[in-house]
Amino acid sequence: SFIVSGRYVDLHLTLLKKISAGKNIGPAQFGSCMTKFAYRFNRDDGDHLDEYGYSKARIETKLRVLKDLLEKQFDRNQAMKNAVANKTSSELCSKPFGRDRLGASYWLIL
Length: 110
Fold this sequence. Notes:
Layout: H1 6-18, H2 30-41, H3 43-52, H4 59-76, H5 78-85, H6 89-92, E1 98-99, E2 105-106
Antiparallel strand pairs: 1-2
C-alpha cells in the first residue's frame, strides 16, 4: 500500500479550494475529489484514478492532474489573476540557478 504525503494532499486541496472546486473537502475525500477533477480534463486519467486510486496511480497521471490543477488557477483563481495581471514576463520567469558547460540551465526550487 502506498501513502500520499500529507503536504502533497494539502497542496492539492489548497489549489482545489482556490478554484472553488473543493471548498468543503478534507483529506479523507482527497482521492475521490481528485478523480472527479481528473475526469473534467481527461477521461483516461479519471478512469485510471478510479481503478487504481490516487496513491497507486502512475506518476505521469498524477503529474498531468497536477498540471491541469495548476493551469486551472489561471482561469478560476481571481486573486492569482489579479497578482499576475500587471507583471511583465521577465518578472514572472525565474532566473536559472546556474548553467553547465554545455549550456543546460538549472533551477533551485525551495
